[in-house]
Amino acid sequence: MSPVTSTVTIPTEYILNYLQQYESRNYKIGELLRSRENTVSYKIDANFRGDPYPGALAALDYLLCREGKTYEERRNNLVLLWGRLEIDHENKTIKVSNSKNISIDHFFAAVKKSEDKNLLTKDFNELSNEMISRYYMQVRYGSTYSKVKHIRIYSYFADAIIFPDGAVWRDG
């Protein structure tokens, strides 16, 4: 089946209303999500993992969202949603439920596990010669290249990743 069959397009207002629970007096969600009228939500009601979802997310970006060369040049937001999605039209929001015991903690655990590949915490004398150029790449670009593939791809393509118990999103 095409990954398109696992998507639903909803007004971005619904996503913003859902994410509003993470705003505070000192923080409001930025303009990137707000700049697009609609959001494509890729719904995954399965255990948190990599393949086949990273490739499908990239395909959905190009098929349903992208207008230009980068994620900033989209006509629609792209949200990765782990769990079951219920659209609440009356309150203009969404509800996310859990049938597979999926948690944002799974995402954070995968990110933490990747950090053992982060060379930025090492001293020069701890680096082997083949690590030196990678160290400098991480200095320049952050730890992007030390993340496992699915975390790197999810973070690159998704404007937000929503779990039943938490969410992360891109502000700019």
Overall description:
- The chain has 2 domains: about 5-100 and about 150-170, no CATH class; about 110-145, no CATH class.
- About 35% of the residues lie in helices and about 20% in strands.
- The protein has a 5-stranded mixed β-sheet. Strands 4-5 form a two-stranded antiparallel ribbon.
- The protein is an alpha/beta fold and about 170 residues long.
- The percent of residues in helical segments reads 25-40%
Which percent range describes the beta-strand content?
A: 15-25%
Count of alpha and pi helical runs:
6
Query: What's the shape?
Result: globular
**Largest sheet descriptor:** 5 strands, mixed
On the 0-100 scale, what is the average pLDDT?
Answer: 92
Compute the number of strand runs: 7
Radius of gyration: 17 Å
Task: Report the uncertain regions.
Answer: none
Give the number of domains: 2
Q: What structural class should be given to the helix and strand makeup?
A: alpha/beta
- How do the strands line up in the largest sheet? 1-2-3-6-7
What is the first-to-last residue Cα distance?
A: 33 Å
The H/E string reads: EHHEHEEEHHHEE
Features:
172 residues; alpha/beta; 2 domains; 6 helices; globular
Quick recap of the structure?
The protein has 172 residues and is of the alpha/beta class. The protein is 34% helix and 22% strand.
Task: Explain the layout of strands and helices.
Blueprint (H helix, E strand, L loop, with lengths): L6 E5 H8 L11 H4 L3 E7 L8 H13 L10 E7 L1 E5 L4 E5 L6 H11 L14 H13 L7 H9 L2 E4 L2 E4 L3
Parallel strand pairs: 2-3, 3-6
Antiparallel strand pairs: 1-2, 4-5, 6-7
Helix pairs in contact: 3-6
